[in-house]
Amino acid sequence: MHRPLVITEDHVLLDDLVRIAAAAGAQLDVAHIPAHARPFWNLAPLIVIGADQADAVAATSPPPRDQVLLVTREPEDPDTWRKCVAVGAQSVVTLPGDERHLVDRFADAMEPDPRSGSVICVIGGRGGAGASVLAACLALRASADHLRTLLVDADPLGGGIDALLGHEEAEGSRWGDLVAREGRINSSALQAALPAFGDLAVLSFHRGEVAAIPAQAMRSVLEAGRRGFDLVIVDLPRHLDPASIEALTRARTTLAVATADVRGILSAAQVLSEVRKHTADIRAILRPGVLDDDTAMTSLGIPSAGNLPDQPRLTATLNRGELPRLGPRTVLGALCTSLLTDLLPQP
């Protein structure tokens, strides 16, 4: 894989750029004069030109390309934007103020096959509504369809979605290994660290005492997930914490699983009153109960995304450590296929 290219003869600036690139997990190719940069110009995923070499680079009339930055320490220099145009840069980066932005640009440059995955959140209207089961089955169905899928357990007290899948002993990182990390997470590193089963990666909790997920950790994971996966499914707790709110603000759609009985609808309405503060597209998955569908949906006040009939054998199947059948002829498989078709952008 080709590396970002830096063109500068300013050794102090170069030291800073090497340090910033290291924070993004990137190594650099360095050219002190434009002639040394010529072989790398069309190959480097990102080119950073020091202001000290801008005129020299412009004099060589390099072919136009994307992902070229001009970096300077002199934000008030009236000549900066002339240099930016002369070298064909798309923007100016001023240090030290734009250091965080430059870390992200270096990290982006090192992402292989970048994606733009969709985030779908799933939340239960009350305990036992089946939200975790739906989240897991959606992830299994998507990965079976060769969508690179990340299933995120956001409920520290939920018992572990990896256990629901029968993979609680699988090797790989859990939330406890990630919460101390600050800043950006490389999507390739995230994929390599997590337990994975085919096209499905799972982020859950360690057994025993667990701590709340910091909002920054959730933000970093979801950003890495969107870059490295086609689909990110987040299983939310009913009591929203800062990490849950981070997920909701990034969700393409949120599915609320509600049971069609009086307490189920009242509880779901309470949950939805909080969820609505943080995300716009919320749809209901209705479980059967004593209320008819029209009454239940009118009370919830959100569109229906589908119905999830009771499946008496499902609990026994999961408790045996087996996965449910999700073929197109099964009720659960058909629902998951329909949801993925409706909720994800089509090619």
From TrEMBL:
Gene3D superfamilies: P-loop containing nucleotide triphosphate hydrolases. InterPro entries: Cellulose_synthase_operon_BcsQ, P-loop_NTPase, ParA/MinD_ATPase, Rv3660c, Rv3660c_N. Pfam families: CBP_BcsQ, Rv3660c_N. SUPFAM superfamilies: P-loop containing nucleoside triphosphate hydrolases. Residues 7-115 form the Rv3660c-like CheY-like N-terminal domain. PANTHER family: SEPTUM SITE DETERMINING PROTEIN, SEPTUM SITE-DETERMINING PROTEIN MIND HOMOLOG, CHLOROPLASTIC-RELATED. This is Septum site-determining protein Ssd. It comes from Nonomuraea insulae. The lineage of its organism: Bacteria, Bacillati, Actinomycetota, Actinomycetes, Streptosporangiales.
